[in-house]
Amino acid sequence: MKRELVNLLIQGGLLIFVVLFTVLVISHYNGPEATEKRRRSAPSASPQALEQMQTYAMRLFEEKRYAEAERTTKRILTFDRSNPAALRLLGNIYYTGGRYYEAGNTFRVILARDPDDAAVRYNLGLSLIGMQWFEAGIRELQTARSANPLLPGIDLHLSLAYQELGDGNKAAYYHNLAEEAAKQSNRVNPPQADTPTELPEPNHE
Predict the structure, then answer these.
(1) What single DSSP character describes residue 28?
(2) pLDDT reported for residue 42
(3) pLDDT on residue 183
(4) pLDDT, tens digit, 9 for 90 and up, residues 55-99
(5) Cα–Cα dist 11/13, whole Å
(6) Where are the alpha helices (DSSP H) in the chain?
(7) Most CB atoms closer than 10 Å: which of 1, 10, 112, 138?
(8) CA distance linking residue 88 with residue 24, whole number of Å
(9) Higher pLDDT pick, 37 / 101
């Protein structure tokens, strides 16, 4: 009986020790000194260095060196997680590579901070359409178009999305709008002799 009592006391003491030790570790980790230490040890870069990395990442993207552009852009985000230019570029890299789910999530992060960014909402709509979520994609495109009806190629993409849904009337309506926009653009900026006339491409800037 005494042995059982001793064992219970020992186990209880060990349990109390574990609990107290855990509390001490948590309080030490979350204390002001630990917070300041983590802040000092976090990676940092000057605004000039971040701007140079951003310029380099954009050049890589324009040269279609997407893997390198992604690595550089993610490095920018290790220094500045909310950098809007880097997030926008990362979303475009994902979209261009057919990684529509990742692209959509990235564009949503931007819209959470700036829901009025029509170009980003446009790209979110294209990402959803890329995942074949046509109705959700159309809603995003319509919202973007309401904010900025001059977004390049948006009527054409709406036409194609409605065509995928089997709504021929709306597909034809937006296709006509896209053709009219192309004609207006050609009247303002007539094509050169050897330049074919094409509908505008979507803008992922």
Answers:
(1) H
(2) 46
(3) 85
(4) 999 999 999 999 999 999 999 999 999 899 999 999 999 999 999
(5) 5
(6) 2-30, 32-41, 47-62, 66-79, 84-96, 100-113, 118-130, 134-147, 154-165, 168-188
(7) 138
(8) 42
(9) 101
